[in-house]
Prior knowledge:
- The complex is a heterodimer of chains A (239) and B (102).
- By secondary structure, chain A is mainly alpha-helical.
- Chain A has 2 domains: 2-188, no CATH class; 190-239, no CATH class.
- Chain A is 72% helix and 0% strand.
- Chain A contains 13 helices and no strands.
- In chain A, helix 2 packs across helix 10 (137-161) and helix 4 packs antiparallel against helix 10 (137-161).
- The termini of chain A are far apart.
- With 102 residues, chain B is mostly helical.
- Chain B has a domain at 62-102.
- Chain B is built from 4 helices and no strands.
- In chain B, helix 3 packs antiparallel against helix 4.
- The interface between A and B is large, with 95 and 73 residues.
Amino acid sequence: MSTLVAPYRFADQFYAGARACIPVCISVAAYGVVWGVLARGAGLSLFEVILMSGLVFAGSAQFVALDLWSTTPSALPIGPLILAALIVNLRYLLLTATLRPLFRPDQQWKGAVMMGIVSDETWAMTVGEMARGRGSIAFLLGGGIFAYVVWMAMTVTGHVLGSAIDDPSRYGLDFAFTATFLALLLGMWRGKGDLVPWIVAALAAIVSAKLVGGSWYILIGGIFGSLAGALAERRRHVD
Amino acid sequence: MLTSPEALIAILGMALVTFAIKAGGLLLANRLPSDGFAAAWLRHIPGAVLAALVAPALVTGSPAEVIAAAATGLVFITSRNLFAAMAAGVATVYLARLLLAG
């Protein structure tokens, strides 16, 4: 196990991961507060907020759940809630698949368990690090656990304080997510080979965001863009 | 009231499918060959997903978001600093929304 070989390096990487996730955790915090406030409005108890943030830990699925939630237990649509979580989170198939290089073949089950801590934000930071030839399991865990704690703390804060809190979008904090992901994307530029997949992904995402709604655009853009990139690469090799 | 059995089942079910998908992506990727087309495809996923995440927000956003995105890009390209780029984006969107709304 790599942790036994160099424990100090595990700690270094863990803190590096947490530090690197500070910018994205600002948007996690902003979304967390908003979700907590809305969850209170939808009638979730504080205990249910803690359970959902702690066990589901997936912002977009939690937002969708609020639309379906009912305060009358017998009217709670259990099946649709679970199905909605499944559909909204399908994009994670693509995200966690790209983390494969972090794990040795014999570590895949250990890796599978760790995937529970992955969110859009920490995934993005980790693949950004991997693109620079770095990135490690410890980095992923450091960012993941930091984001988990922030999400938990801020959703609870939102629920407790309710509408006494200002809307974070008044301070532009909702844009932290887009800004960070845009900067990460620019940092991944490796040359003209990236142009085709990025443009295809962006166009597919824009079209599907208009036509389908929900969070499908991430999955659809991701699949079309990456396939276009792989196809373009193969064509260049053939020529 | 803490919770109800129905809410507990719903939350546990949501947690279970979410975890299964997150773990499933990594396990499925391990079944793919590590070279050739599958590897090229996996390599292009991060950029494609990030582009897909960002693009609709910029197209459907107001001019404030577009200006802020330009500021974010400019600061990142000149400084290569993620935090500075994010801060520039947030500050610009805040100011642009104030000015454009007023």
